[in-house]
Amino acid sequence: MLSTAQVEKLVASVEVEEALQDRNESSATWSFADTYRKWNEISDEEGALKKAVKEKAKKPRSEEPTLSALRTMLPEVVLDLHGMTVSEAEREARAFLATALEHKIRKLAFIVGKGLHNEAGYSLIREEVERILRLSRNVREFFSPPARYGGSGVIWVILKG
């Protein structure tokens, strides 16, 4: 069965053709066979569905990357927090996240450092940034990239789109 939208679209196309035909009535003739052929085009559900599928296939797919593609692609923007104090890093990370959301960025990175040079022996900035990300409703997921991209000294973030 045809959807209402499909029926309306077909009826509209017939009305346009009929209006053009009325305007050009003197130069063209409209026979019963033409009317019958047009009626068959309208009432042919299978043909209409095939036509709709073809039209849909012609439309470009959404440019929205899949989650799998987002996981493997490089970040669109990067913020280097390495060397900042925890409070400075927190302020910068929150502002950076808000700006990324505003500009519809899908993937970003924070360089947090590995924390090898502080007394704790681990990255305090990393802990703070992860806390911010866990509390954000706009973060889909975050993780450490492969070692060639910084490993545990970097956090890659995928935002909800």
Plain-language structure description:
The chain is α+β, with helices and mostly antiparallel strands and about 160 residues long. The protein has two domains: about 55 residues; about 90 residues, Ribosomal Protein S8, Chain: A, domain 1 (2-Layer Sandwich). About 50% of the residues lie in helices and about 10% in strands. The protein contains six helices and four strands, in the order H-H-H-H-E-H-E-H-E-E. Strands 1-2-4-3 form a four-stranded mixed β-sheet. Helix 5 packs parallel to helix 6. The protein is rod-shaped and about 95 Å long.
Q: Concise description?
A:
The chain has helices spanning 4-23, 32-43, 45-58, 67-72, 86-102, 124-135, and strands at residues 77-80, 107-111, 139-143, 154-159.
List the main descriptive attributes of the protein structure presented here.
161 residues, alpha+beta, 2 domains
